[in-house]
Queue: 4 jobs
Job 1
Amino acid sequence: MRIAVTGAKGRMGQAVCAAVTAAGHDLVATIDADDPFDLNGADVLIDFTVPSQTLTNVCQGLASGAHVVVGTSGWDDQMLARVRQAQAEGNTNVLIAPNFSLAAVFMMRFAEMAAPYFTSVEVVEMHHPDKVDAPSGTATATAQRIAAARASTPAMPDATQTDPQGTRGGTICDIPVHALRLRGATAHQEVLLGNAGELLTIRADSFDRESFMPGVLLAIDAIANLPGVTIGLEHALQLED
C-alpha cells in the first residue's frame, strides 16, 4: 500500500515511517510543516502532528483522495464536524485514534466494562512534559466511555467541600481525571475503580514509541473497511458492535 506521513520529522513520524517501510508498504511522501502538501498518489495518509495542524492535514488528505489515519490528539466536536463534512464530500475514510497502543485500547475497554459495577472511579494519566495538551486524548476518551457506561449508576461519593488549589484535578463527564507531566515518562494511564473493601487498578504503560506501531499497521489494514469517520482503534480490532 502507498503511504504518506505528515509530521515525518518528529519522533513519532520517524517511527511510523520506519514501521510502514518494514511492513512492506511503499512510503511515497513525507510531509512536514513547511513542505508542499503533495501525497504523491498515496492510498493512506498517516497524521502525527500537533492539534493546530491536524485538521488542515486531514481535510487536505481527504481532498487528495486518500484514506486518513490520525494519531494526533486535541480533537473537539467542532473539529470533528468539519472532518465529517469533508469526508462526506469524498469517497475515502478517516480513523482517529486517541491511542494506538493495544494495551491502552484494552485498558479502556476493560475499564468501560467494569465501571458500572464500582462505586468510585478515577483516571490518572502521565506523559512526558513535551506533550502540548492535557488531559491526553486517551484519558478524555476513557472518561467519556466510563461515564456512558455509568449512565444509570448513582453519583460517586466525594465529601470534598474546599479545594482552593484544585488538587482534586479536573472532571470529564463528571469523571475525575488527573494529568501528570514528568521527564522520563512516555505514555502511561491507570483507571482506579473502588468498592467497599476492594480496589481494581487497570493500567497501561508505553515505554517506547515502538509500542504504537502494531496499532498503526492495524489501522492501515482496516481503514478501507471503516466507512465514514471512525473514532477509536477498537473498531479496527472489532471490539465494538
Note: Helices lie at 11-22, 51-63, 77-88, 102-114, 137-149, 213-222.
Job 2
Amino acid sequence: MRISVVTVCFNAVDLIEGTIRSVVDQTYDDVEYIVIDGLSTDGTTDIICRYTDDLTYWVSEKDKGIYDAMNKGIAAATGDYIIFMNAGDRFADNNVLSLVASSLGHHTVVSGRWNRCYSDGRVKPAAPKKLNALKVEMPICHQATFVRLSYHKENPFDTSFRLSADYDFFYNAWLNKEPFLYIDDVIVDFLEAEGASTSNITKSVMEREKAWRGENGLLLRKLNLKYQICRIKTVKFLKSITNRSK
C-alpha cells in the first residue's frame, strides 16, 4: 500500500523543516513525498533543497492559490492513498503511517484523530464528528485524512472555492455515498491558524453554502451558518478585550 504525502507551502521558512522531518522520519517503507512550493522568497526553498534526496518530487512555481497547488500534488502523486501535510503540521509520531496502513484499502476516505496545537504551547485533542455534520460543517481534519488517490484524481479540488474547496470535496464524497472510515489513531499535530482574520474565517464558513448548490430545504442550514459566524465574531471580540486588559 503506497502512501503519497503532499506538502504545499509558501514563504514558510520557520515551519517547513519540522513538517518535512515528520514525513521523512516515518518508519513506514512505501511512502512517496511530494512538495509543492508557491515560489517562496523567504528561504523556504533553501530548506527544501536540503532534503531533495528524501523527496519523490518537488517544484517551486507560482500557483493560483492553495487548492491549485494541492491539485498539482494530486496530479504528481502515484500512490494508493494521499494525505496532505501542510507547512506547520506534523505527523503525531514517526509510526503513524505504519499504524494506519492496515486500515487503508477498502474505503475512499479514512480519517483519524488530531491534536490542535497553539502557538502558546497548548494542545487540545480532537476527534471526528458524525458524518452528517457535513451538512453544515467540516467534521474531520483534512491533515488527519487519507483519500484513495484514484478517486481524488477523478475529483480534484474545485478552485472556484477560495477557502472551502476541501469541505466541498468531502461533502460531495459523502453525498455520493463514498465509503468513509473513522479510526482511533492520532494522525497529526495540526497547527491551529490563530492569526486567521475574522473576515477570512467568516468567508470560509459562508462558502460552504456554495457547496450545497441550491439543494432544497436549506433554510435551517443557512441559519446554522449565521449562528457559527456570530459565535466566531463573539469569541474573537472577547479574546481581543481579554488581550487588551493584560
Note: The first strand starts at residue 3 and ends at 9.
Job 3
Amino acid sequence: MNFASIRKFSLPLGSLLLSSFLLWGNIAKANISISPMVVETEAKRGQAQGRITVSNPDSQNFRARVYTSPFTYDKETGFKILSESPKDLTPYLQFSPRELLVGASRKRNIRFIVRFPPSLPDGEYRTMIFTENLRKGTVTQTDSKNNITLQTSIIPRVGVALYVRKGDVSPNLIPDSAKFDLKTNQIQLLVSNKGKASAIVAGDWKLKQGKKTIQKGSISDTTVLAEKERYLNVKYLNKNQSKLAPGEYQLTGELGWGVNKKNRIPFDVKLTIPAK
C-alpha cells in the first residue's frame, strides 16, 4: 500500500501553552510525554497511517486509556471539544491500543490507520487522540482570605491533534483586521482561513504611528482551522514597556506557515486603541 508521508510537530511545552495547544490537566501530574503533539498528513489512495510515542520517565508504571474526540478552535476562546463535527476523523480512524501500560522509564507506540471511502468529499478531517491517566491526581488550592484549603481531583490527559487531508486541499490565509481587548490589554490580529486545510501560523509584527515604529515582536504558533477564523495574540507588553496611549495605529508584519514557515503573507491593518 502507498501511504502518505507524515509531517510531525513536537513543540516545547512553553509553545504548547502559549498557542492554546493540546495540553490538558497538569503535565507534571500526568508524568508522561507524547511525541509528536501535532500530526498532519495527506491520504494516498484513500489511506494514511502513523504512530504516536508515549514515554514514561517515572519510576512507576503508567496506565492510560486512549480515545478520540472531535474539536475546534473558537475564534475568541481557543480550543474546544465538540460532541460532533462534519469534519470528525473518528469514523475513518482505527488505532491501537485503546488502553496501554507503559512501564517505568519505557516507551509505547499508539499506531493508527485512516481509510476514507471514495465517496467522501475532499477536505481535511481531524480529531484529538487523548491519552488519559487512569490514576486520578489532586490539585490543592489555598484561599487565604477565607482561611480554607481545597483539594480537587483531576484526571490528567494529553491530546495529540491529528489532521488528515483528502484530495488537493491547502490553507488560504487572509489577515483581516486588528482590535484591542481592553480586558486583557492585548492586541489581536484576526486571520481568516478560506482554504480547506488548517495551518499553524506564526509571524513578526510592527506597531506604527505614522512613520514611527512604536513596538515590534513576534506571534507564537497558533492553529487557524480550515474554513474558520481566529484571533492571533500580539503580546506587545513586557515589564519594561508602558501601555499604549489611545489613538490610531498601524499593525504591519508577515505571517508564515507550512514546512519551515516557507509560505508567507504580509499584513497591514489599522488598529484603534480606545480610551477606557
Note: The two ends are 62 Å apart (CA to CA).
Job 4
Amino acid sequence: MPLYEHVFISRQDLSNTQAEGLVEHFSSVLSDNGGRLVDSEYWGVKTMAFKINKNRKGHYAFLRTDAPAPAVQEMERLMRLHDDVMRVMTIKVDAHEDGPSIQMQKRDDRDDRRPRR
C-alpha cells in the first residue's frame, strides 16, 4: 500500500488530551477503511506565521500512515469537515524515515545543517 505523511493543525483552545484524541479518532477512520497508522507524533502548541481563522497558535500533529488512497481521501474529508481542525497537509512518500521527525529532534542531533558564520 502507498505510504503517506500527514500534518494537521487544530485550534489552540483545545487541551492537549483533546488534540491527541483527534489523532486517535483519525487513526480509527484509517483502520476502518483498510489502512493503518504506522507512527504518530504530537508536536505541541506552536506559533503560526500568519493567522488562520483568527488563531495565532495551533496544536500540531504528525501522522505516518500505510493506507490505500480511498482511506486517505476519507480521512482528509473528515478532517476538513471537523470543526477543530484548521489545516491539513498530506504528502505521499516512497519510504518512512526511521526515528523521530525533524521537529522532534534536538538541535544538537541535526548534523546536516551548515555551520553558522
Note: The first strand starts at residue 3 and ends at 11.
